[in-house]
Amino acid sequence: MTRTQAVSFSRTGGPEVFEYGDVDLSEPLAGEVQIRHAAIGLNFIDVYFRNGSYKVPHLPFVTGKEGAGTVTAVGPGVEDFKVGDRVAYAGADGAYSSERNIETRHLVHVPDGIKLETAAAMMLKGMTAEYLLNRTFKVGPQTVLLFHAAAGGVGLIAGQWAKALGATVIGTAGSEDKVELALAHGYDHVINYKSEDFVSRVREISAGKGVDVVYDSIGRDTFPQSLDCLKPRGFFVSFGQSSGPIENFTLSALAQRGSLFATRPTLFTYVAARQELIDSANALFDVVQSNKVRINVNQTYPLREVGRAHADLEARKTTGTTLLIP
C-alpha cells in the first residue's frame, strides 16, 4: 500500500465539488498494472460526470478518462506490459490521480517517437476523430462535411485528419481567434456562429447542396439547425452535448429534411473490442507520426487546480487540448 494524490468529488455540481488530497493505492491486482501519470487529458465528458449529466457508479468518485505514463508495477498474470513501459489509455475512469492501478485491457503502448504528454493529449480526442471519420461515416475525397466546435480538442484533430483524407472541411467556431486557429488546422471554411447564420453559410459554401455529414458535439444550441445543413440522405452525427442535451427530437424531422440518417455514437462502443482499440490507437499514432496531424497542447493546469480548468472549459475559454499535470 502506498500513498498518492487524487481528485475526487462526493457530490455532483460545479467545479467547487472537487477535493484534492492523499489517497491509499494498493498493489495492482491480477490483470492490472500500476502507472505513474506524466499527464492527464481534460475532456468534456469529465464535466458531464462531475455535474451529474452522466451518472457515476459510486460516490466519492475519481473522474477522468484519459492519461499517459510509465508502468511502475505489474500485477499477477500480466504478460503484455512490464515495468518501465510507456503507456496511454482513454476510457478508464480514475485518471485524475498522480498514480493509479488500471486493467491492461485499456492500455496501449506508446511509440518511442511520441512524447507521453502528447499521448495524454490525444488518446480520447484522437481516437474519437478516428472513429468519426473512418467508421461512423467514411470520409474521403468526395466528402463535404461540417464539424462544429472546430477549434476544440476533437475539432482541431478532425480538421487536419479530414483534410488529409481529401475532404472539403467546413467548421464552426465562436470567435475570430478560434476561426483563425481552425483555418490553420485543415479547415477550408470556418463560420463564426456568433456573427453569421451557419445554415445559410453552409448552403452558400456547398452551392445549395448541403453537406454529406454533420459532426455535432454541441447539442441543444445547434439543433435542429445541423439537420438543415445536410443534403438528402445525409448523416447527422451527434457525439456530445456541451450546450445541453437535444430535446424534442422526432424521427419525422429526418423524413421532412430528405430521409436523413442520425446516430449518437460513443468512443467506448467503437473501441470495446481489444483489437478495435489497438487498431484505432495505431491509426492515430500513424497519422501523428506522419505529420499529417499536429497535436497542440494549448493549456496546462496543475492537477490540484482542476476546478479552474473545468471552469475555463465550460466557459469556452480553452482551445484545442488541455492537460492536467500531477
UniProtKB/TrEMBL annotation:
GO cellular component: a single term: cytosol
Gene Ontology molecular function: any one: mRNA 3'-UTR AU-rich region binding
Xref: Gene3D superfamilies: Medium-chain alcohol dehydrogenases, catalytic domain, NAD(P)-binding Rossmann-like Domain
Keywords: NADP, Oxidoreductase
Pfam family of the protein (one): ADH_zinc_N
Domain Enoyl reductase (ER): 13-324
Name of the protein in question: Quinone oxidoreductase
Species of provenance: Rhizobium vallis
Lineage: Bacteria, Pseudomonadati, Pseudomonadota, Alphaproteobacteria, Hyphomicrobiales
